[in-house]
Write a structure and sequence with these properties.
The chain is an alpha+beta fold. It contains five helices and eight strands, in the order H-E-H-E-E-H-E-E-E-H-H-E-E. It has a six-stranded mixed beta sheet. A two-stranded antiparallel ribbon has the order 1-3.
């Protein structure tokens, strides 16, 4: 019975996600390689890419989107690498921040563009993207400081923009891009 259920199992899902990430990393290494574009339901991707950890996020679609699905053409593997790093940064910062560990993920589509916002508490007063983008430097124990570099490279390859900033103990990452 276990083998027959494998295609729909969490193990199969995890292996498929790992294969997508590896393919996307190879594509990043080969800068001239083409994107593997496919249609993606943004809400489903945002929820699926959240790691299975003790940290939980609140997911909410912006009111202006209503009940319409947010669909975009993207390289799902690159989007997953980008979001996995954003999510891990949010989780790490929230866990280090103290009692308030709420992580919020929101999104919408406006015209032909989308946005995704990940907000989380962090220890400190403020920071800007220049403070965290230096490759090889990390304030987190056991980290090598390549996460922001991966985020930046994946966003550039996808043609997306992003901002990250922290004020008054709240960090906000915003990703924007075209839906086609």
């Amino acid at each position: 019975a276990e083998v027959g259920e494998y295609p729909r199992s969490r193990t199969s899902d995890a292996i498929n996600r790992l294969e997508r990430r590896l393919d996307a990393l190879v594509a990043l290494i080969r800068k001239e390689s083409d994107l593997e574009l496919s249609e993606c339901d943004l809400e489903r991707a945002l929820r699926e890419f959240w790691p299975d950890m003790t940290a939980e996020a609140t997911f909410s679609v912006a009111a202006d989107l209503g009940c319409r699905p947010a669909r975009l053409m993207t390289d799902i593997g690159l989007l997953e690498i980008l979001l996995a790093n954003v999510y891990q940064n949010a989780i790490d910062a929230a866990l280090e921040s103290g009692d308030d560990r709420r992580i919020e993920v929101s999104w919408s589509v406006v015209g032909e563009r989308f946005w995704v916002r990940v907000s989380n508490p962090f220890s400190g007063a403020q920071f800007d993207v220049q403070d965290v983008e230096t490759t090889g430097i990390s304030t987190k124990s056991g980290h090598q400081g390549i996460g922001m570099s991966l985020i930046k490279t994946a966003a550039e390859k996808l043609g997306y923009g992003f901002r990250i900033a922290g004020r008054s103990g709240l960090a906000t990452f915003t990703l924007t891009g075209g839906i086609r």
